[in-house]
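Re: How this chain folds, sequence and tokenised backbone to follow
Notation: Tokens come from a learned vocabulary of local backbone shapes, not from coordinates.
Start of record: The labelled sequence and token lines come straight after this line.
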Amino acid sequence: MEEIIFFTGKGGVGKTTLSLISALKRAKEGKKVLLISIDPAHSLSDVMNEAKVVAPNNMDILEIDILKETQKYIRSALENIRKFIGSETFEKVRKTVESVAESPGTEDAVLIDFLSRLVVEKADKYSSLIIDTAPSGHTLRFLRDISSAGSLLEFISKEARNIEHLKNLSGTLKGNIEISNILRERYERIRKLDITIKKGNAYFFVVMNPDYVSLMETKRLIESLEKINLKIGAIIINKIMPSHIPEEYRGDQEEIIRRAEREFGRFKIIKVPFIRDMGFLFEKVNI
């Protein structure tokens, strides 16, 4: 995979539209592209339907159904557990696991597992992976969880190997080895995802609108991304109204743009006009 690009930013700034344009442009260049929405409230198909966009043959689109993926994740976990415990104990474990599925953080764990499989299994199939993310706060928590999940699985894997060693004379060794192998495989996948995002060819395109609230959230988002050593590919100032629009509608966008240029001048800045015509944006905007 030549590149992984995350479109991130405050809710409502236009991440979905811009990620779609970016994916279409790369597909037009002849690249094999996968466009994914990991936003639980995804609207990618809605944007495509409204703009009457049909994906070319070399571009695949995936909107992750997080509820469906969570259910699949829980079923897989229970199937693995069932192999090693009795039916009475399994019923107790099943109720616990299913209750955990409703707890905060489960969706992030499922997304991490899904993306790690994607990066490992589809790395050679696509040139570009474009990811339309959820709003800033959710995305930052998700990115931090990738590292913490990898660390946790590494610890559990080591403990599992210790158990193998201690029980190498017991009749349950086969089960312990299988559990350990499952944990190691998952750890290696998530570790590879973490390394790819932090040290590989992954870039974050931060999208903002020319207003004060968006500027402040973008500033905090950039600081957080840099703190966890993530690479920023560009700052996109989206929905810039043309000068002939009355000032009461434009507000202080010119001052906000100047401030953004001062604050984020060390990055590439892309300015995108406020135009609803997807075809015009595709021709005029280079992302």
